Fold:
Amino acid sequence: MSYDYTGIRVKKDGSGGITTYPFSGYEIDPSGVVTKYIKIGNEIVGASKGGEKLFYHNDHLGGVNVITDIWAARVQLVEYDPWGKVSREEGVSEASRRFTGKMCYAATLSAISF
Structure:
């Protein structure tokens, strides 16, 4: 991972290729799909991912529990035990934000706060 002089991530080099972060709230994956995250305060409430609109439903800790599409169809459901371990998972939309809503780097499964 590469960071700029202020500590903001600008690039992640993974097994699937290089993901870039040109601006705050933007992500370009290795296949060129652009994702823009919409935030209110510190919580992500929506995203536009390659033309697909997604809505994030967060719990009281800021973790993403449910993601729905524009027709309110559930795209992803994740439930946790009290210690943050995933106890139930359905769908495969967003794996980078977990228990407390922080970014999770899949290679190390560590939560990163930014």
Remarks:
- The chain has one domain: 2-112.
- The longest strand covers residues 34-40.
